[in-house]
Each structure stands twice: as structure tokens, then as C-alpha cells.
Amino acid sequence: MTDLSAFPITRKWPAQNPKVLQLYSFPTPNGVKASIMLEETGLEYEAHKVTLADADVKSPEFLSLNPNNKIPAIIDPNGPDGEPIGLFESGAILLYLAEKTGKLIGQTASDKHHITQWLMFQMGGVGPMLGQLGFFYKFAGAEIEDPRPRERYINEAKRLLGVIDGQLEGRDWIAGDYSIADIAIAPWLNGLNFYGATEIVELDSRKNVLAYLDRFMARPAVQRGMNIPARD
After folding, report:
1. pTM for the whole structure
2. Measured on CA atoms in the order 25, 7, 119, 131, is the torsion positive or negative?
3. pLDDT tens digits for 161-199?
4. Termini Cα distance of the chain
5. Half-sphere exposure of 213 toward its Cβ, with a 13 Å CA cutoff?
6. 151 belongs to a structural domain
7. How far is CA 174 from the centre of its chain?
8. What is the 8-class DSSP label of residue 82?
9. Domain shared by 90 and 183, yes or no
10. Phi and psi at residue 112, in whole multiples of 5°?
11. 225 CB contacts (<8 Å, ≥6 apart)?
12. Taking a C-beta distance cutoff of 8 angstroms, is the pair 133, 124 a contact?
């Protein structure tokens, strides 16, 4: 029987089936990247709900797997060296699962690099900037009287949407075929609805982005993954 006792996180979130991949997550734009990827690839896994409360993400057990106290994280009992491996950071998890399965990372080395550049675009730009937009437009930052932070992230969100809209001209997916780049980017675009920010960033003017989101959200694996692990 696979032994995951070397991972302290399993004390707080015990594995029911330690032979399968363990997902520790919550359905945020970053969290659903991992669950969507797992649903798309068909890998067998077990999902554990890790809320964003300090009692979960700042618990010693969770910090033992991700010292940066952010979801998602995984343990794969069938790691690449014949031993279990634990990983955090959603982009690293997408790359790992793509390489493990040989899926959604292109057919050639050039494909992989083009897909990876758009994955990094999301990790370094779309995620951080739209996340800050949400903070300053919907959450606590909205109470700050100085308009400059809010204006900065609204304008940066508009710029990034323009980049994505341009890349999608004549394409169904961001880097050719459907890939981990789409699984990284689209959940953050969808998050603009949650922030109530679609009008302020003029999303309706980005016809390629709107059609792209519709295609993405129509995928059965996406629909399943968007609710894993369930909030309730």
C-alpha cells in the first residue's frame, strides 16, 4: 500500500485512497486550474477542500506542502522517480500534469515552448493584475479613497484583455490547439464576472475573448472542474 505519511498535510486531510493523486484546493481561478486539468486528462485523483481561511492555508500541515500558503497543491504518489512527489504553484502543477500524461502541451518541442510562454503570461500578468483589480474594485481595497491603485489595475486589465483578444484573432485557443495555457488563462477571465468588473474593463468590446470564454466554459471537463472541490 502506498505510504504518504512522510507528508504532514495528510494528517489534516487524510487520503482515502493513497494510491491516487491528492489535490488540495479551493475553487478560485488558481484552484480550478488543477481540477480542470485533472478532469481533462482523466487522471484518477482525490480532492480535499482547503479553504482560504488561515486555519487551513496557514496551518502547519498545509505549510508543510506549500510554504507560500496558497492553493492549489498536489501529492502524486506515482512521481517521476518512482517516489511520491509534492508540488505547489498552479503553473508548475499544470506543467507537471501535462508532462506526466503527454496531454495539452502540444505535439512538438516548439509547441511546448509556445504554450509555456502563454502560461507564463498568465502567471506573471493576468493572474496578479486581475487579482489586484478584484481587491481594489470589489474587496477591501475598494474602500481606499485614492483612485490611483484602482485606475492602475483597471487600465492594466484592459491592456491585458487587448493582448489576449489580439492573440485570439483567427484562433479558437490561445496557442494553437487547446492546452494548459487556456486552462491557466480562461478561469481568470471568467473571474471578472465574480468581481463585477466586466463593464469597467469593457469586456463586451473584446469579441474574441467573449467567444473564447464561451468555448472554454462549454467543455464538460471545465464544467466539472470549476466546482471541485465543492465549496459546501
Report:
1. 0.97
2. positive
3. 999 999 999 999 999 999 999 999 999 999 999 999 999
4. 31
5. 18
6. yes
7. 16
8. S
9. no
10. -60, -45
11. 32, 35, 36, 37, 38, 39, 40
12. no
